[in-house]
Specification:
Layout (H helix, E strand, L loop, with lengths): L1 E10 L3 H9 L17 E3 L8 E4 L2 E9 L3 E6 L8 E11 L4 E11 L13 H21 L1
Antiparallel strand pairs: 1-7, 2-3, 3-4, 4-5, 5-6, 6-7
Length: 144
């Protein structure tokens, strides 16, 4: 299953000012991560390629970092992310009169790792479908 989610925020500021917000990720003065509503982003070292960590049970490592411009977090295997192959990232995009700060979640998941068993209709659904099929047959027979 494909998962893709993109959030853009337009900010009337300079690219450098908004870039400093990205650079603050996981630091003591993190100005970007919504720590009031989510577990805080914690990394095992300063924000940079190779740093590992996550937020709550979501684990990842920094796979790309361009200071003030872009931070990419590759999901780690195992735990809550078992079966998820993908990443999320923050980036700053300069426009003429404003800056866009973008957060993207992009991944492919196969949570079970096995073939999914086909679901079956319950007794009530089977009964209703049977009644509908009989009604359809009677209607067709009456037309002939």
């Amino acid at each position: 299953m494909k998962i893709f989610n993109k959030h853009d925020r337009i900010i009337p500021a300079t690219q450098d000012a908004v870039g400093r917000v990205i650079d603050s990720l996981s630091g003591p003065d993190d100005a970007l991560w919504p720590w009031e509503k989510w577990p805080p982003m914690i990394l095992d070292s300063v924000l940079g390629v190779g740093a590992s960590g996550g937020h709550g049970p979501v684990r990842y490592r920094v796979s790309e970092y361009v200071p003030g411009r872009r931070a990419v977090f590759q999901f780690a295997e195992g735990g809550l992310m078992k079966g998820m192959d993908g990443h999320h990232y923050f980036e700053v995009i300069s426009r003429r009169r404003y800056v866009v700060i973008r957060h993207v979640l992009d991944g492919d998941c196969n949570f079970s790792g096995a073939t999914v068993k086909r679901s079956h209709w319950g007794l009530w659904v089977r009964l209703l479908r049977s009644m509908r099929a009989r009604q359809r047959r009677r209607t067709e027979a009456a037309r002939e």
